[in-house]
Amino acid sequence: MGTVVGVVIGYALGARSGQKEWAEISEAWKVIRASDEVKDLIAGGFALLRELLRRGSALLAGSREQGDNRSVLRSVA
Predict the structure, then answer these.
(1) Alpha-carbon Rg of the chain, whole angstroms?
(2) Do residue 30 and residue 40 come from a single domain?
(3) What is the DSSP string of 23-63?
(4) pTM of this structure
(5) Residue at 22 is within a domain
(6) Per-residue pLDDT at 58 exceeds 70
(7) Does 12 lie in the same domain as 24?
(8) Number of domains into which the chain is organized
(9) Taking CA 42 as the corner, what is the angle to CA 30 and CA 3, rounded to the nearest 5 degrees?
(10) DSSP 3-state assignment of 3?
(11) Range of the domain at 60
């Protein structure tokens, strides 16, 4: 997570810098993007998304199996 914060700060500083500094920041971003930490972060995000989709589809399938027309979300009005 620290690397992501570092990239954001580097980008903000790079936006005010010249071409040479921007090239250094761009190269640093390539190294960070290829790091195992970032790859693990992205893989974890996808795993979480898959689990949320699996649970959501199971919830929808369960509500359809009940056979009644009651909604999972009910109106409060």
Answers:
(1) 22
(2) no
(3) HHHHHHHHHHHTSHHHHHHHHHHHHHHHHHHHHHHHHHHHH
(4) 0.46
(5) yes
(6) yes
(7) yes
(8) 2
(9) 50
(10) helix
(11) 35-67
